[in-house]
Amino acid sequence: MTSFSKLGIKNYKRLINCQVEMRPLAVMIGANGVGKTSFLEAIELLRGAAKGELNAKITSKGGFDSLLTFDRSDSLELSTRMPVSGHQPIDYRIELDRRGPSYYIKGESLSQTRYTDKPPFLYINSVGDNVRYYEKIDAESAGKLVRPTWEHDPFEASLSQVPKMFREPEDFRNKLASISSFGLMNVGSNSPVRQPQQLRPVGVLSETGDDLISSLYFLRETNRDRFDVLQDTLSTAFPDFERLDFPPVAAGMLTLTWKDKKFRHPVYLHQLSEGTLRFLWLSTLLLSETLPTVTLIDEPEVSLHPELLGILADLLRGASKRTQIVVATHSDRLIRFLKPSEVLVFDRQEDGSSKVTWGDFPDLDIEKWMKDFTLDEVWSMGQMGGRS
Predict the structure, then answer these.
(1) Domain assignment of residue 224, given as a range
(2) Scanning 34, 138, 304, 306, which has its CA 20 to 30 A from the CA of 282?
(3) Looking at the whole model, is its pTM more than 0.90?
(4) How far is CA 146 from CA 52, 136, 149, 165, in A?
(5) Is 143 exposed, middle or buried (0-12, 13-18, 19+ CB in 10 A)?
(6) Tens digits of per-residue pLDDT, 290-307?
(7) β-pairing, 180-182 with 294-298?
(8) Same domain (yes/no): 101, 61
(9) If DSSP codes are grouped into helix, strand and coil, which group holds residue 213?
């Protein structure tokens, strides 16, 4: 599923001018420090623009200066495009510029081309302090671009502040705001995910994974077929796995047990290895019936045995039919199970910036190499870039 068909990033750390045609599944490869994490962070910044959390996101990354391309720029720009069924796509752009120790929103627009012989229709069109958005006056009148009548927060995008818009731009705002990011879940011995949890309805796992037990329990109770698919996946990954159970430990509190065919007593969640717990978490996430419009995953291979990565690749590919997935990885073995069209290659150029290219880019001629080698071997030999 492709929720957003284009992503533009300018002057964000090493991503000086990155323009990518997005696909349902993008697994990013490349050396350390070449921009894979920055790519994920830029998407998170767009989410912040839609949710009214732009300032908090920038602050959490060390402030505006820490996001810029070192000593080369005073501003950064992000843009994206959402396809609209039966109509022209929605385009969004936001540019931030330095102002003293902080930043200001230099420009922002939300637009849609409706007629080929006319300029794009503007839902939002802001230049500096001149903030304007489209307001429909009444059913008979066309409406016009007006200035806010409320107290506009200059550190937050207008996208998160304007009143409810027409269906298509509102759908864009909601989709952008629903992006979810999953990093290295805490699976330490005393982590919340290993503890008994208060039972509550869970449609999609939280970004921390602390509601894993509730998510699995409600999956079993509301969609037994999908829960059985999850258990079949675990059986494929771990041949001695038998089933998951949810014994209560107190009023409204559940824990989770893992039944192993080789042992008489079940294994409790706090006894599972880090790799087993991470795979259970990833499988639960990727097999969820309801997923966010875009799912960001950073280094899913951590703690996983190499033999599990083929199953993980299948899970990613299957989930990409229900959510757009962007993954950062350093795993050669995971790349083995992917197609060139699913791999986004990051290369450092002579000027220090990063170049981003799809693995099936014609100039790479990957298909010629794959007649004799697997994709991870082609990568290891340096034939598709993405090496240090």
Answers:
(1) 189-291
(2) 34
(3) yes
(4) 20, 10, 9, 13
(5) exposed
(6) 889 999 999 999 989 999
(7) parallel
(8) yes
(9) helix
